[in-house]
Design goal:
2 domains; six-stranded mixed beta sheet
Length: 340
């Protein structure tokens, strides 16, 4: 064990497997392996569950009655939180960015099924007034005699990021057992906690390799460099780690966001379709699709050497994919025109 962890709940199905992607490797020119964190559970799946094991354990220790968190309408984190709260007998209140759709689909449907209370706010209100919204909700629950516990977007804080410190240990054990010399780990970055946890795990292990890379799916690289370092500083404050953040390099590869968060684009969709057809592995348009497309472009550009061993972290998101049918319309039109 690299550090002394606070107690956590056991919500995820761990360890998740590492699979070799032979056909994708042949196409891309690297030895590609995929860490299947999309398999941490069924409806309680994806990378967020590892973080929630620690965050919700803290909520239980604080005797919370209700858990509040926030995200986009198709947030994987919000869905995982709602499902986990239902499993634990906790109330869940989700602060969602955007207007309510005419009917729930994907993650939002699962939020509804889990019994979460949903509050929708326009993007500009969500972006500028979220702290006040959270504070008001906490006060309202307190007046009702209920203790509320707030988890930030993506559970990307010190307590949540411990899930990926632990995951880094898991990866090291697995790759040693499988005799895989991983040179690079690549993950999507949407709130910073997964990347911060992996980087913290590497720092605590004092390993030179693997190199850890994030591919941002929103905002820009400087934003996430600062956010990851903020999380590492929070770890120093809470868990007595001694990360010298001014000396730490945070690798974030920019240029694959497209028009914005959760807005797919054709090159990304082609990458999603190709991996599904060659490996039977399904990515999502919000996180893993953009990250995997970015990985393919960075390989072409020479950032990752030919025959390097690369581990791509599949962080889940399949339920969000179910709400993106219109973006697959061109593929569907080609399919229905086929003759057998």
């Amino acid at each position: 064990m690299l550090m002394r962890y606070p107690k956590r709940l056991r919500l995820a199905q761990l360890p998740t497997p590492i699979e070799q992607a032979l056909r994708a490797s042949a196409t891309l020119g690297v030895n590609l392996f995929i860490k299947r964190d999309d398999l941490t559970g069924s409806v309680l799946s994806g990378n967020k569950v590892r973080k929630l094991e620690f965050a919700l354990a803290e909520a239980v220790r604080q005797k919370a009655d209700v858990v509040i968190t926030a995200g986009g309408i198709q947030s994987n984190h919000c869905r995982a939180t709602a499902i986990a709260c239902a499993r634990l007998g906790l109330e869940c209140h989700l602060i969602l960015r955007g207007a309510p759709p005419s009917a729930p689909q994907g993650n939002l449907l699962l939020d509804l099924m889990a019994g979460a209370r949903l509050s929708f706010f326009p993007r500009e209100v969500y972006s500028t007034k979220k702290p006040e919204i959270v504070g008001t909700l906490i006060e309202e629950y307190a007046r009702a005699g209920k203790r509320a516990y707030y988890i930030p977007v993506g559970a990307s804080n010190a307590i949540g990021s411990l899930g990926y410190v632990l995951a880094f240990e898991e990866i090291c054990r697995q790759t040693e057992r499988l005799n895989i010399n991983v040179r690079h780990i690549v993950t999507a970055v949407g709130s910073g906690g997964t990347l911060a946890g992996l980087l913290a795990g590497k720092l605590l292990s004092k390993r030179r390799r693997p190199e850890i890379w994030g591919i941002n799916v929103c905002d820009d690289a400087p934003t996430f460099v600062l956010e990851v370092k903020r999380i590492l500083e929070e770890m120093n404050d809470r868990f007595s780690t001694r990360f010298q953040t001014e000396k730490i390099s945070v690798n974030v590869l920019d240029g694959y966001v497209g028009k914005g968060y959760a807005i797919p684009y054709h090159e990304e969709m082609d990458a999603i379709m190709q991996l599904a057809q060659t490996e039977g592995i399904v990515l999502d348009p919000v996180y893993t699709g953009k990250a995997f497309y970015g990985l393919t472009r960075e390989i072409t550009a020479g950032r990752f050497g030919r025959n390097d061993t690369v581990l791509f972290l599949h962080t889940g998101g399949v339920f969000g994919l179910m709400a993106q049918g219109p973006f697959f319309s061109s593929y569907w039109k080609k399919c229905v025109k086929m003759r057998y």
